């Protein structure tokens, strides 16, 4: 059972870290370069499927890291616990920072954007970088825990 959970936690944390990293280095720079109306339209298209699957993968990875920490001992236990905290950080930043911005953008009609529109891209990117660092750290800690357990 530990072997199955180890594979699942590496898969989950790896997917989260990889997706967030790709968004940070490729998608977000493209979105920032777009005019506001095009950004809003594109943002709506990009978020459709992430919104359904990412919370499940993040929560599942956090839970598996926590379970392996509870079941483990020594260095492995500490590393799995630290990984669980990092992945919980991804969830907290996502739900309290990025998701509210996403929801506001989803309610915006591209044609309604005027000169007083408050562009959320820089703030969204900054919080996204925080959660990306948490995800990469969580993945790294999970991998180290699997190797050292």
TrEMBL record:
Transmembrane annotation, as ranges: 6-32
Superkingdom classification of source: Bacteria
Protein known as: DUF1772 domain-containing protein
Keywords assigned: Membrane, Transmembrane, Transmembrane helix
């Amino acid at each position: 059972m530990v072997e199955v959970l180890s594979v699942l936690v590496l898969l989950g944390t790896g997917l989260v870290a990889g997706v967030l990293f790709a968004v940070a280095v490729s998608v977000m720079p493209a979105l920032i370069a777009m005019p506001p109306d095009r950004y809003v339209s594109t943002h709506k298209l990009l978020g459709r499927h992430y919104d359904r699957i990412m919370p499940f993968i993040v929560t599942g990875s956090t839970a598996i890291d926590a379970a392996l920490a509870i079941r483990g001992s020594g260095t492995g236990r500490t590393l799995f616990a630290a990984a669980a905290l990092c992945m919980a950080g991804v969830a907290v930043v996502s739900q309290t920072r990025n998701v509210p911005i996403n929801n506001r953008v989803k309610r915006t009609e591209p044609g309604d954007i005027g000169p007083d529109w408050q562009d959320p891209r820089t703030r969204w990117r900054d919080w996204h970088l925080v959660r990306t660092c948490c995800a990469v750290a969580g993945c790294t800690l999970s991998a180290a825990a699997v190797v050292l357990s």
